[in-house]
Design a protein that fits this description.
about 30% strand, 4 strands, 4-stranded antiparallel β-sheet, alpha+beta, globular
């Protein structure tokens, strides 16, 4: 299984970010072909105290790295990427990973 992992830093306006993320971006992303599961986590704190470095994380699960790449190249994947860069391009870090066994 392959994952696309998105880490979002704290936005200036959390309410506006949440409204766009949950009402626009997540529904766009959910339409990407090959996406098996999408897990969104709101970070509530750090063991060291405080808010921590990130505000939100999202793990998008695919059957394979090829399926992930194919999904991102699809019209739905490109629409999700364009939207992401428009509302959170300066906040997001993206990584690709595979589950370790």
């Amino acid at each position: 299984m392959a994952k696309l992992i998105a880490l979002y830093k704290h936005p200036e306006n959390k309410e506006a970010f949440d409204a766009h993320y949950f009402n626009v971006h997540a529904p766009l992303t959910a339409k990407i072909p090959g996406l098996r599961e999408m897990k969104v986590t709101k970070v509530t704190g750090s063991p060291m105290g405080g808010d921590g470095k990130y505000y939100l994380t999202c793990e998008m699960h695919y059957d394979s790295l090829d399926a992930l790449k194919e999904g991102l190249r699809s019209p739905e994947g490109r629409a999700s990427g364009k939207d992401l860069m428009g509302f959170a391009g300066d906040l997001v870090t993206l990584m690709i990973g595979e589950e370790a066994k």
